[in-house]
Structures are given as structure tokens and as C-alpha cells.
């Protein structure tokens, strides 16, 4: 970088600086760019659809923007999916979810429904499937956490969130994502099974 700094400039883009090594960070000027607002995404969706000759209702644009989690790329893909699904657009039409999101939800439901070594082996295969389709490991663990918390009691949610943060941190430090994802699932299974058994014992006595 120092060798060519007189003749060229490098622009590096990333979603998180946690994996950027210190020597690179020390040689760069970090500029943090916040995610676009809901209004910004609505404006961009409207402009894109206008150029394509597709009238986009503002209600639908706002619903897409909110469901995308302020992720512009995801919002554009969701808008494209809506176009394939139905034309002309209507304000109340369904917004399709990505296949991998549905697959992740099914994986979380499978974790909650049964906690056995055989089920853990099956979940490992599903996690591999997500990773081989280029779904980032941190997105997988965040998605699993969100779905698993929906099935947890209030007193269990804090422990599960803390556990997810621990394994997400280890995920950033390690090289093999599957190890940390599987460890998180195994730990959750053990915690959830114990919680359910304790609850049943309390009901019996």
C-alpha cells in the first residue's frame, strides 16, 4: 500500500471491521456509512420501478423497506420477487421471503422440536447446506437466535442471547464456521432440554 500510495488510492468496503487485521486498519482512514433509512429505500425502490415502467404503490414500498431490515440489496431483491409474483403491484400483496430464510426458520423449528444426537447431526447437515450456498455464518447465527428466541420463555431468553454473543465472537476469531455454529446449537439444545425437563418436574410436584 505504501509503495503505490503516490499514484493510486485503494477503497476497501466491508460490513464489519472486526476481521480486518490491525496493520490494514492503521493504514486506512475509516469512514462509517450508516444503513439507508426506510425513506431512502422507498425513494430508491420508486425510482428503480419508475425506470422499469412499473408503478409501485408507496404502501408496498414501505412494507418492503421495513421487511428488508434497511438492507438495500435485500429490498431490491424482494421488490423483484414481488414483480415476478404479481403484476400490477397492489399495496397489500404478499412479500415473498428468500428461500434461505425459510430454510433457516425450518432449521430453528427442528432444533426446538427435538434435542437428540441424531437431530444435532441433521442440523449440522442443514448448516452445511446454508454455508455452501454462501450464506454468511454471522447471518446464520443471528437468524437462528431470532427464531429460537420466539420459542423461549422470558427467563431463558437472556441466557440464549448471551450464549449466541459468545459463539458469534468465537466465530469471528476462528476459521471453521461450522464448529462454532454446531457448538451453539448443541449448547442451546442442552439448555432448552434441561429447561423443559425442569418445567415438567415442577408441574408434576
From TrEMBL:
It comes from Micrurus corallinus (Brazilian coral snake). One of its GO terms (biological process) is DNA repair. Subunit of the RFC complex, an heteropentameric complex consisting of a large subunit RFC1 and four small subunits RFC2, RFC3, RFC4 and RFC5; the RFC complex interacts with PCNA. Forms an heterotetrameric complex with RFC2, RFC4 and RFC5; this complex has ATPase activity but is not stimulated by PCNA. The heterotetramer of subunits RFC2, RFC3, RFC4 and RFC5 interacts with RAD17. Interacts with CNTD1; this interaction facilitates crossover formation. Subunit of the replication factor C (RFC) complex which acts during elongation of primed DNA templates by DNA polymerases delta and epsilon, and is necessary for ATP-dependent loading of proliferating cell nuclear antigen (PCNA) onto primed DNA. InterPro entries: DNA_pol3_clamp-load_cplx_C, DNA_Rep/Repair_Clamp_Loader, P-loop_NTPase. Pfam families: RCF1-5-like_lid (PF21960), RFC_C (PF22534). This is Replication factor C subunit 3. GO terms for molecular function: DNA binding; DNA clamp loader activity. Keywords: DNA replication. GO terms for cellular component: DNA replication factor C complex; nucleus.
Amino acid at each position: 500500500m505504501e509503495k503505490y500510495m503516490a499514484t493510486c488510492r485503494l477503497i476497501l468496503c466491508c460490513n464489519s471491521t472486526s476481521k480486518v487485521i490491525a496493520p490494514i486498519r492503521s493504514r486506512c482512514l475509516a469512514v462509517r456509512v450508516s444503513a439507508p433509512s426506510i425513506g431512502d429505500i422507498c425513494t430508491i425502490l420508486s425510482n428503480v420501478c419508475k425506470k422499469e415502467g412499473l408503478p409501485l404503490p408507496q404502501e408496498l414500498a414501505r412494507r418492503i423497506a421495513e421487511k428488508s431490515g434497511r438492507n438495500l440489496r435485500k429490498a431490491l431483491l424482494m421488490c423483484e420477487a414481488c414483480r415476478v409474483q404479481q403484476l400490477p403491484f397492489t399495496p397489500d400483496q404478499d412479500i415473498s421471503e428468500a428461500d434461505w430464510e425459510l430454510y433457516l426458520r425450518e432449521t430453528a423449528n427442528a432444533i426446538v422440536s427435538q434435542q437428540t444426537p441424531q437431530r444435532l447431526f441433521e442440523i449440522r447437515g442443514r448448516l452445511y447446506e446454508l454455508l455452501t450456498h454462501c450464506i454468511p455464518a454471522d447471518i446464520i447465527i443471528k437468524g437462528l437466535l431470532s427464531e429460537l428466541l420466539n420459542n423461549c420463555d422470558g427467563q431463558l431468553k437472556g441466557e440464549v442471547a448471551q450464549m449466541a454473543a459468545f459463539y458469534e465472537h468465537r466465530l469471528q476469531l476462528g476459521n471453521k464456521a461450522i464448529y462454532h455454529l454446531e457448538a451453539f446449537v448443541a449448547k442451546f439444545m442442552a439448555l432448552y432440554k434441561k429447561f423443559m425437563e425442569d418445567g415438567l418436574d415442577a408441574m408434576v410436584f
